[in-house]
Amino acid sequence: MFVETNSTLSKASKYAISAVLYLTNKASVSNKIGSKEVAKKLNIPAPFLAKVIQELTKKGIVSSVKESNGEFYLSEINEKNTMYNIIEMYR
C-alpha cells in the first residue's frame, strides 16, 4: 500500500499519504492503531513514520488520544482533508 511514484514527492510526503490511506481503511474511533503497527504493515522505518504521524496530528490531518499510548485514527473532521493538504505540509 506504500505510494510508489516517479514524482518529486519527498519520502515524508509519500509516507504520510500511505499512512493516512492505511488509517482510513483500518482505523476508527473505536479501533485506534499505533504508528509502529502502521510502519510494520507498510514496511516504513518506525521512528521516521512516528515523526510523520506526529506532524499529521499537529496539522489536524490525523487524530490521537493522549492516554492511548500513541494510537491514531481519522475523525469525521480529519476525513475532510485531501491529499493536497498532506503534500502541502512538506513543501
Structure explained in plain terms:
Helix content is 48%, strand content 8%. The model has no long low-confidence stretch (mean pLDDT 90). A hairpin with a 6-residue loop joins strand 2 (63-64) and strand 3 (71-73). The protein has helices spanning 11-26, 35-42, 46-58, 83-89; strands at 33-34, 63-64, 71-73. The radius of gyration is 12 Å and the shape is globular. The protein has a 3-stranded antiparallel β-sheet. By secondary structure, the chain is mostly helical. Helix 1 (11-26) crosses helix 3 (46-58) and helix 2 (35-42) crosses helix 3 (46-58).
Describe how the helices and strands are arranged.
Blueprint: H1 11-26, E1 33-34, H2 35-42, H3 46-58, E2 63-64, E3 71-73, H4 83-89
Antiparallel strand pairs: 1-3, 2-3
**Unreliable spans:** none
- Summed over residues and divided by their number, the pLDDT gives a mean of 90
Strand content: 5-15%
Strand segment tally: 3
The H/E string reads HEHHEEH
Class by alpha and beta content? mainly alpha
| Helix percent band | 40-55%
Q: Biggest β-sheet: count, sense, barrel?
A: 3 strands, antiparallel
Task: Strand order, main sheet: write it out.
Answer: 1-3-2
- Cα(first) to Cα(last) distance is 23 Å
Give keywords.
3-stranded antiparallel sheet; 91 residues; mainly alpha; globular
